[in-house]
Design brief:
The chain has one domain. The chain contains two helices and three strands. A three-stranded antiparallel beta sheet has the order 1-3-2. Strand 2 and strand 3 form a beta hairpin. The chain is globular, with a radius of gyration of 11 Å. The two termini are 18 Å apart.
């Protein structure tokens, strides 16, 4: 997975647009391996 730590709400919306999802216990967001694999398959 890829982990990001968005600095504000605008950044959260940006990352969400690429499939990142928030972690329930922190402000960080992750892009799950399944999402990454699906993106790679489309290349």
């Amino acid at each position: 997975m890829i982990t990001v730590d968005p600095i504000d709400e605008r950044a959260k919306k940006f990352y969400a647009g690429y499939g990142f999802v928030p972690l329930s216990d922190s402000a960080k967001m992750i892009l799950p391996m399944k999402t990454i694999a699906d993106l790679v398959e489309t290349l």
